[in-house]
Amino acid sequence: MVPTFPALADPAATLRDLLPAGYSSDTCQAIDRGAALAAMSCGPNSLAGGPTSAVYQIFADHAALQKAFSAVVNGVDWTATTCPGAKSPDPIPLRISDGTTYGSVACGRARTFQTDRDGAVVWTRDTDNFLGVAWAVYQGQSYPANLYAWLRAQVT
Hints:
alpha+beta, eight-stranded antiparallel β-sheet, globular
């Protein structure tokens, strides 16, 4: 089943309500939404393992969401890495504890070195046409598994 998304009176407010836990009211700001209904850029998340920066978006439909997800994982500054527990660097289904599919997830690193945006995780929450791209600071040569653990804790 392809999720549908009803028209939103205030997409920015809806997106703010969908943000992961760990952001204060002044941590995130609206940014150019491009093809999204709303988009926000957020600074550091206060939860353990949380990102140092992130971008969140909501889309009008599932096709637009998948196009945006693909644009990230196929982007010029994305180097795919294997998510903790996965068998390959390809995107994988993101499931909640009962096995229900929540969305898709992929792990990566910045192709060009940036100390504040090294390891990354991109994921979708299909029922809300929500896309998140979260970055962690440089942690040497290993993928920041704590960032992936932070994401897993958000999936409910």
